[in-house]
């Protein structure tokens, strides 16, 4: 069973972008954030659309869009906020992670 918690957050800008992408791909507006080993700092964020929450997932909902994180990844991103930024550096999802001791220049990997 998925749990609804305040351990993670999805900003309105990120929710709007997920909804836009999901609509064009004909999928549910569910963004999965997971953490994998690798990247230039030790761990890297992975984003993808999901069909829905799975047992053990933590779910945050903003404007009808869900952010889901599995229980193993949650330990590394607890307290994070996922945002969508569109600026001169490009358009991309970002993770504000209070657990990250350091990050890389590309913003897609971190260390704890």
Cα separation of the termini = 28 Å
Relative helix content = 10-25%
Number of DSSP helical runs: 2
Which regions contain 5 or more consecutive residues with pLDDT less than 50?
A: none
Radius of gyration from the CA trace? 13 Å
Explain this structure to me?
The chain has a single domain (3-111), classed as Hypothetical Protein Aq_1857, Chain: A (Sandwich), CATH 2.60.300.12. It contains 2 helices and 10 strands, in the order ββαββββαββββ. It has helices at residues 12-25, 71-77; strands at 3-4, 8-10, 30-37, 43-49, 58-62, 65-69, 80-87, 90-96, 102-103, 109-111. The strands form 2 sheets. Strands 1-5-6-3-4-10-9 form a 7-stranded mixed β-sheet. The longest helix has 14 residues, at 12-25. The protein is globular, with a radius of gyration of 13 Å. 30% of the residues are buried. The mean pLDDT is 84.
What keywords describe this structure?
45% strand, 3-stranded mixed β-sheet, 10 strands, 2 helices, 112 residues, Hypothetical Protein Aq_1857, Chain: A
Give the topology.
Layout: E1 3-4, E2 8-10, H1 12-25, E3 30-37, E4 43-49, E5 58-62, E6 65-69, H2 71-77, E7 80-87, E8 90-96, E9 102-103, E10 109-111
Parallel strand pairs: 1-5, 2-7, 3-6
Antiparallel strand pairs: 3-4, 4-10, 5-6, 7-8, 9-10
